[in-house]
Amino acid sequence: MLDLRFNYPSVKKEADIFQQYIKGLPEQEKYGMLTPPSFRPAPAAAQEIGQWLELPPDTLRYRSDVITTCSGNSALHCILTWFRNMEETAAIEEFTYTSFKASAHELGYRLHTIACDAQGMIPEALEAHLQSSNTRLVYLQPTIHNPTCSVMSLQRRRDIVTVIKRFRDVYVIEDDAYRFLHPSPPPTFLQLMPDKTLYICSFSKVFNPFVRVAHIVYPRNILQGVDSIIRYTTSGSSGLLSAFARYLVQGDLLQQVIAEKRHIAELLYEKVKNIFQDLPYRTFPGSYHIWVKLPEQLSAGAFAAEMRTWNIDIMSSEDFSTTGNQEYFRIAMGSTWNAPELVPSLQTLAGAVRKHYST
User: Are both 180 and 36 inside the same structural domain?
Assistant: First the structure.
């Protein structure tokens, strides 16, 4: 079975970099890394995170705090857990990340879908919802959205910032997992609106899933006591991996990995264009996933089941929807980009979709 559900692009260079890092560790540092680290990065490490995220120097000095956990999923769950005593709802896009949806449902949130267009959430629709509800959390994936591949323009981001600032105590949860695949992404909401943004920075996709480290950058007036939530849900990250993540952002090794991943994704994009050229689909030149529209008479669940008989595993749009939408399916190539059976499987998928459109 070719797994086209998971989307963690990795390259050989990652293993080489980690091996070199371990070999170069001074003897006295090795044992210190066996001790669990503080959830709060040291001031120098926090400033390095800020530099990596291209934040103004004053952001992490005066406006925002940073805390570390073991993954982006953990970060989302901890944020939702902290807000749950005060909040019952969250605003999301028409299709949203499956783990956010699962955590929200587990914690009893009601998720409100806001109308979207090719750039993502529509500011006017968000404003109308905030005017008629008590929602204070807005979850966004503004750069190479999962699953739709949409990218919010700078103007769209500014328009959403304008809306958010009109409402007291409304915050954006910015999940920017795929930002690194965009060659020149617009500014983050964290850069545009640090006082109202909770930003999640994970190393699982930008480097590799084994680096169980993610940072939450958040306004200083909220998330008091979130350390306890991290402690009893995951115990945080490890000393070794936290130190390695810091090492990655200090030099240019991570940028080399990112450049290689972008190059691979651009080559995949050319293959996808040729294979799906006459079909309705969305992607981005640096993306490892594709969002394909199915004909009206065919449900994504039925199509996914059909593809499993061909040993191809894909995700239905129902997985990303709170309304049961089955009009699309997602192909994720991050874990299989170099698999010899990938291109034949993409051809099988495209051929099957064409066949259904012609009937």
Answer: yes
Question: Are 86 and 234 found together in one domain?
Answer: yes
* Secondary structure element (H or E) that encloses residue 29, with its range: helix 27-32
Arithmetic mean of pLDDT, 83-87: 93
C-alpha 330/C-alpha 3 separation (Å) is: 12
What residues contact residue 269 under an 8 Å CB cut-off, 6+ apart?
A: 283, 284, 285, 286, 287
Contacts of 209 (CB under 8 A, 6+ apart): 8, 10
Burial (0-12, 13-18, 19+ Cβ within 10 Å), 96 = buried
Measured in degrees and rounded to the nearest 5, phi and psi for residue 280 equal: -80, 110
The CA distance from 137 to 92, in Å, is: 9
Block residue for tokens 């001074």: 26
Q: Is residue 28 predicted with pLDDT exceeding 90? A: no
Q: What tokens does 225 get?
A: 């006591």
- Helix ranges (DSSP H) in 63-212: 72-83, 98-106, 123-131, 154-165, 189-192
Q: Decide if pLDDT at 200 tops 90.
A: yes
Given a cut of 90, whether residue 62 has pLDDT beyond it is: no
Burial class (CB in 10 A: 0-12, 13-18, 19+), 164: buried
The model carries a pTM of 0.95
Single out the residue in 233, 252, 271 at which a domain terminates: 252
- Residue 60: pLDDT band by 50, 70, 90 thresholds? confident
The set of residues, in sequence order, having a beta carbon less than 8 Å from that of 33 and lying 6+ positions away, is 25, 238, 239, 240, 243
> Tokens 């199509």, residue?
303
Find the length of the chain.
359
Bond preceding residue 285 cis, omega within 30 of 0: no
Cα–Cα dist 217/59, whole Å: 10
Count of structural domains within the chain: 2
Distance CA 237, CA 49 (A): 16
Q: Which residue among 204, 233, 252 closes a domain?
A: 252
User: Helix, strand, coil: what percent of the chain each, to 5?
Assistant: 45, 15, 40
Specify the residue for token string 């005593």: 85
